[in-house]
Amino acid sequence: MGARTWIEDAWAQRLWIDHLVAGTAVGIHILVIRLTGSGDWLQWIGSSQRTDLYAAAAGVVSAIGGLSAIAISIYTAANGERLRAVRRQHQGQLRRSWRSLLQGTAWCCLLLLAALSLDREHDPLSARFLSEYALTFAVLRYPRLIWLFDRMMQVSDMDLAEPERAPAPVRDPNWVHRRQGTPP
Questions:
Q1: What DSSP line would sit under 146-175, residue for residue?
Q2: pTM score
C-alpha cells in the first residue's frame, strides 16, 4: 500500500478530525483577533449583511446536503458485482461515512440558523463565530463527500465497463441424436 493510499484511508476513517480542525482554525482566528485587534472580517460588515450571509450559506449547505442524498440513492441503486462486494465488506464504514456527511450538513445548517437568530448589531454574543465554525466545517466535509462519491462511482463504473458474462454453455449429451433426428 502506497503512502497516498494510507493517508486517504487514515483520513477517511477519522471523521472526528474535521471537528478538531474547524474548532482549532476558528480558535486561532479568535486568538489573533483578540491579540491584534484586527482580522475580524465578519465584524467589518453590518448585522443585516451578516444575517444575509448566514441565510445564503445555510441554503448552499442544504443544497449540497441534498446532492449527497442523491449520491446515496445512486449508490444504493447500483447493482454491480464489485459494488455488492464493497457493500458486503465495508457496509459499516460506508454507512457511518454517509450518515456522518448528512449529519454534518444538518449540523452546519443548525449552527448557521443559530447565528442568524443570535446576531444583533455589533454582535454582542459573537454569533459570527458560530457561522465561521459551520463554514469551516462544511469546507472540510465536502472533500469527503466528493471523495466517497468518486470512489463509489469508480467501483460502479468498473462493473458497467465490463460486459456481463454469458453463462457457460451446458453440455448436452444427446446433441448428436437430436441433430440426426434419432431417439437417444
A1: HHHHHHHHHHHHHHHHSPPPPPPPPP-TTH
A2: 0.74
**pLDDT by residue for the chain (184 residues), tens digit each?**
678 777 777 777 788 899 999 999 999 999 999 999 888 888 788 888 988 999 999 999 988 888 777 777 776 777 777 777 877 887 788 788 888 888 889 999 999 999 998 888 877 778 889 999 999 999 998 888 888 888 877 877 777 666 656 555 666 677 666 667 777 6
- CA 111/CA 114 separation, integer angstroms: 5
Angle at 122 between CA 117 and CA 125, to 5 degrees: 50
Listed residue (132, 141, 126) closest to 111, CA to CA:
132
DSSP label at residue 83: H
